[in-house]
propionyl-CoA carboxylase
Amino acid sequence: MFNKILIANRGEIACRVIKTAKKMGIETVAVYSDADAQALHVQMADEAIHIGPPAANQSYIVIDKIMEAVKKSGAQAVHPGYGFLSENSKFAEALAAAGVAFVGPPVGAIEKMGDKITSKKIAQEAGVSTVPGYMGLIADADEAVKISNEVGYPVMLKASAGGGGKGMRIAWNDEEAREGFQSSKNEAANSFGDDRIFIEKFVTQPRHIEIQVLCDSHGNGIYLGERECSIQRRNQKVVEEAPSPFLDEATRKAMGEQSVALAQAVGYTSAGTVEFIVDGDKNFYFLEMNTRLQVEHPVTELITGVDLVEQMIRVANGEKLTITQDDVKLTGWAIENRLYAEDPYRGFLPSIGRLTRYRPPMEIAAGPLLENDKWQGDAPAGDMAVRNDTGVYEGGEISMYYDPMIAKLCTWAPTRAEAIERMRVALDSFEVEGIGHNLPFLSAVMDHPIFVEGNMTTAFIEEQYPDGFDGVELPEADLRRIAAATAAMHRVGEIRRTRVSGRMDNHERKVGTAWNVAVQGHSFDVDIQADPKGATVTFDDGTALRVAGDWTPGDQLAEMTVDDTPLVFKVGKISGGFRVRARGADMKVHVRSPRQAELARLMPEKLLPDTSKLLLCPMPGLVVKIDVEVGDEVQEGQNLCTIEAMKMENILRAEKKGKVSKINGAAGDSLAVDDVIIEFE
């Protein structure tokens, strides 16, 4: 076995690889840019080597710099993680020439299947059903428009070397095809160093289901079930689960066998993923093969007990697979939610800054099924599992230079319903402050009826949140539970305040039992009767809820029970109450005395400032270009400027007709959130 492995990546996947390498007794080497000098993967590795400036195209995807780090460290193998150089055949060639093992497939397999254009041609030649499209090189935007018309709108423009939603655009007409072609090329060049684009038919109402394969260099290949990845935003996966709630055993077997046959046809070794579009009749169409470890691999590990990183390392070392297809058992259900540094209340735009608070829920181990390289065959230990793959820590920085993913929160349980419920509690328990993040949105998805029923397609987010996400209106039953809990919490705080020293004699403050709780447009009059073990909160309609829990003023997470049912929520103090985040809702909860509530209803509401004549920067990023000049008349929907943040280009458009009076930025400028870019008359 190798003595030392270099991980040519960063963030959570680098940390993930380091964990398995340490378990196997292998030393690890991290590489880092200027922006990652204090990163978690650098701290976890046995040694770390600096490779350049923050931008990935000057550090993490520069082959010469990685090779120099390999030589300097004396590493015998390199694990590329995902993204960056993981599907770069030239990188694999450079390692082979240096006598260093690549923890991934052979160069030939990367060239054939890692390239999205070539892989589709090979799949067609092998008789695999593929989506209609044009796989050749596209010269310019005019040719892209011509091809799009031949294929038939809507079409998908995709980066040949792409992944992770980068370099992908859907076009519904000529204008979008022309615009999308250029943006896709730019993103592809910046993210992968390869700006080739291909076009395929965009299948409406599809499900995105992928098969995990594992092959060795001795001719053995198996599939480890499927992953449902249909919940996506801008073609970037947000929620994944294994198995799929849609597939039956016959379809799973057909997709799995076809995936293994395709992998073996190109001499594939290591872990890989074959992606399919599946329609409502369970017809499946090959999309592409990812010749690397997938972001969402943990859900497969949780239902099979197979450590995929360990298997990749063993295969790279020339070992045979010790697992046969008959050994693979799919046990229970696993769900993964991707926590992104994206603000759902600002159109999911990237957010950067310092993590002033980062406290994931407690991890609970399940399994493993595979111990000492021997198949155990039993279900994971315990009824539930919680796993959080992350590459950040409290006090660390979220950089504008890299992907906005903070963590991958996973839960496992014997059934899908139990795994979802465990995920709901885990999301509510996750504390993140200092940046915008998508925790509220993830909670909303976990409660959405379509997701709960398992009937989602890749259009789920677009259809269910067409105007973006602005929070959740909770059912009255949930609001009553929160009202009861916060009323009891407020009473605890009031009692504590009566005990402050320095009071005047005979001026003791009394804490009453009658309160009014206002939350999300509901007003509840309640009476609280406390006892040593909690409190009973009675509403004015006579219903009563029993509240218990270990919360003291100042705690930022409330873990309570209401009528013996767990209730976990993030809590902050505001004047006259609390700010509460629970189940996708971000709420101000005001707890007042009856007289205070009466007066509060007479108070005028503060109006928001008028920004209708300003174009504000919606995210921290760099100005790519300004498309207008002072004095220009602009029309609704017209391009105003392009901002690049976290490897994605974002085009800002005019919301209404107007005339440009002032421009405050230029190409290359670095902007903060709400900086004024353009002013209108």
